[in-house]
Design goal:
alpha+beta, elongated, 2 domains, Serine Threonine Protein Phosphatase 5, Tetratricopeptide repeat
Length: 181
């Protein structure tokens, strides 16, 4: 049975709407909102926000920088997402009440240095931005692979060559056995 979720979504400094959405339709609403970050010409679309039923907020910038704060402003922490899919995954989990369980530890203290990088949205985005897992697998670095998988990196994501992290790991093994012959 579907669960109905109350959310508030919109543009920071722009229009907002309150929705009652079934949980299985939530991701498509979030994807549509994030798609608007691709509009570089309109500054109103440079930042979007979502609020859950408690009034807690996640604000997302076109660069992938996400800001989390409570309705009372008690916490304000930052995270720089590595891909649009990662942003949508975090926001969806946040709205269904799984944010604290899975993602809160990824966010950093208010005054911490947030990593910079290519934009996650828009024409200048880096299509390889979320391929850290592929690179670690190809390098044969098991400890980094383990940490990235535990941090929620997508083990089924394809890189620019259409390879999964598993294929990269196999290629690393083949490379290693060829060198040892």
């Amino acid at each position: 049975m579907s669960e109905s979720i109350f959310v508030r979504i919109g543009h920071v400094g722009g229009h907002a709407e309150e929705l009652q959405v079934f949980s299985e339709h939530l991701r498509s609403k979030i994807d549509a909102l994030l798609q608007e970050l691709n509009t570089d010409a309109d500054p109103e679309h440079a930042r979007v926000f979502v609020s859950d039923q408690h009034g807690d907020n996640i604000e997302v910038c076109a660069t992938g920088l996400m800001t989390f704060s409570t309705d009372e402003g008690l916490k304000q922490t930052y995270y720089r997402a590595s891909s649009a899919d990662k942003v949508a995954e975090i926001v969806t989990d946040f709205l269904v009440g799984m944010f604290g369980e899975w993602w809160a530890h990824e966010f950093v203290a208010e005054h911490a240095s947030v990593p910079k990088g290519a934009p996650v949205f828009g024409p200048n985005r880096d299509p390889e931005a979320d391929c850290f897992l592929h690179k670690a697998a190809y390098a044969g670095n098991l400890s980094v692979v383990r940490a990235l998988v535990l941090a929620g990196h997508d083990v089924n994501r394809k890189d620019g060559s259409r390879d999964s992290p598993l294929v990269c790991a196999v290629l690393a093994l083949q490379r290693g056995s060829s060198a040892g012959e």
